[in-house]
Amino acid sequence: MGLRIEPLLLCSAAVAAGIAWWQGYCWEDIINSVVDKLAKAMPVIMILICVGGLIGSWMFSGTIPYMVYWGLKLISPEYILIAAFFLTSVVSVCTGTSWGSAGTVGVALMGVAAGLDVSLAAAAGAVVSGAYFGDKISPLSDSTNFAAIVADTTLFEHIQHLLWTTLPSFLLAAVVYLIAGHSNMLGEVATPQRVTDIIHSLESLYHFNIVLILPPVIVLWGAIRKKPVIPLMLSACVLALFLGVIMQGLSIKQGLDAFIDGFDIAMFPQGAEGVVADVPRLLNRGGMFSMMGTILLVFCAFSFAGALTLTGALTIIINRLLTIIHSVGQLIAATIGTTILVTGATSDGKLALLVPAELFKDAYRRMGLDTKNLSRTIEDAGTVIEPLLPWTSAGVYMATTLGVSTLDLLPWAIQCYAAIFFALIYGFSGIGIARTASASEKSPQSSVTE
Q1: What's the pTM?
Q2: Which of 407, 100, 54, 425 is nearest to 259 (CA)?
Q3: Same domain? 133 vs 166
Q4: How far apart (Å, rounded) are the C-alpha atoms in residues 288 and 310?
Q5: What is the pLDDT confidence band of residue 440, given thresholds at 50, 70 and 90?
Q6: Does 24 fall in a domain?
Q7: 182-207: per-residue pLDDT in tens?
């Protein structure tokens, strides 16, 4: 129907608040629940504001254009999707952060895709797939550690068991990206002459030097060392502004304008004169104010989550669901459905792992299943699904950072959703299902129905 998601979330919040009032809660209880949720969203909001400033300042310094410049030189259109997928996968595995890899390497790769005239939705989907591959299996990832803890299993048993669903998903995504790159699925890509023109335009605007990669290096180093995100990003912004003044000959005022309002090619003395039309579209972006619409979406989503949580509706739904589960496949399917439901309803990635783990842990044990099956399933349906829901903090961040709407990139984020299908296949077939030592001595049928 083409309706905006913000008013839909506000209407849903109003309905949830009405139900809470009908249950006997007063207005103060409802508003306090909403405020508590919004308080938890404040770090996300601050990070989003910093991301806007970071993109603007990196455009100002020439950091992103420098990475795009080399990407256009080294990557052909046929391999941009697989390159985006592999590069973000490596960075996210090494750093344990999907947001960091998408906000650094991912942004540069989106610039390369724009320069090559490749489908931005496909490129964004490949970036999100790669970024969340590492977030899912890296021992440095907080979500990976959290899933293991709440499911009562060890970290490395959890990661090893994740490979059953994650590796097939990774290979499937890689094959699709290779096929898409060598077919007409990406539309008409840029001609070699057009790519050359963009490269020459970038060379005419910026003074490129290897030191321009220092800001993203600092961000990635900080991610590996688990430094606080907001001070780290602001430090990278300050360094980028300094590089823009020193390397590009721009003024401090222009740097602050880029940081707050976004970069504009008109800041250069020659402006857009003599550059191809694609370059301004590539460079004119970023700034803290560019995140205001995104922050409104976060506000609406967490307001709905606060009102809904107060009603206890999720607990009632899930407890009813537990009464109809009689097989391993049904249990896996119920865990997947519950995790997605909690993710969408609360917009909270950690809560989406915690709630299903607490509710289903005993059911897994009663069926003689090792709890690493539970930790794997909540990651398959939680960690990597969150960026595919437009109103969650991860979905908002990825869409805003990469400049592509969540629903547009969703079909191409293959690694994120393919794991669910493998999890269901394993659940109903018994393949890749780990049982406890006592249950493994019984027949498969008896361990399911006991």
Answers
A1: 0.78
A2: 54
A3: yes
A4: 33
A5: low
A6: no
A7: 877 666 655 667 778 888 888 888 99
Task: Find, among 403, 386, 404, the residue nearest to 395 by Cα.
Answer: 386
Asked if residue 21 is part of any domain, the answer here is no
203: number of CA atoms within 13 Å, CB side?
9
Give one DSSP letter per residue of 276-322, joined into a string.
-THHHHHHS---GGGGHHHHHHHHHHHHHHHHHHHHTHHHHHHHHHH
- CA dihedral (32, 37, 39, 45) positive or negative: negative
Tokens standing for residue 2: 């083409």
User: Quick one: 421 exposed, middle or buried, by C-beta within 10 A (0-12, 13-18, 19+)?
Assistant: middle
Q: Please indicate whether residue 449 or residue 142 has the higher confidence score (pLDDT).
A: 142
pLDDT tens profile 126-169? 999 999 998 888 886 778 888 888 888 888 889 899 999 999 99
**Both structure tokens of 59:** 């455009």
β-partners of residue 435 are: 369
**Cβ partners under 8 Å of residue 433, min gap 6:** 328, 369, 373, 426, 427
Residues 222 and 303 in one domain: no
The model's pLDDT over 56-93, given as tens digits with 9 standing for 90+, comes to 999 999 988 888 888 888 888 888 899 999 989 988 88
Residue 325 in this model has a pLDDT that exceeds 60 = yes
The strand pairing partners of 369, in sequence order, are 435
Question: Domain check: are 267 and 300 in the same one?
Answer: no
Average pLDDT over residues 245-272: 90
Same structural domain, 258 and 374 = no
pLDDT digits (tens, 9 = 90+) for 372-420: 999 999 999 988 899 999 888 889 889 988 889 999 999 999 999 999 9
User: Cβ distance 300 to 10 under 8 Å?
Assistant: yes
Question: Which runs of consecutive H residues, i.e. helices, occur in 97-213?
Answer: 98-101, 107-115, 120-137, 142-150, 155-181, 192-205
What φ, ψ does residue 210 adopt, rounded to 5°? -60, -25
Q: Which domain holds residue 436?
A: 296-449
Distances (CA, A) of 151 to 158, 311, 421, 428, 433: 9, 26, 21, 21, 15
Q: How far apart are CA 143 and CA 320, in angstroms?
A: 28
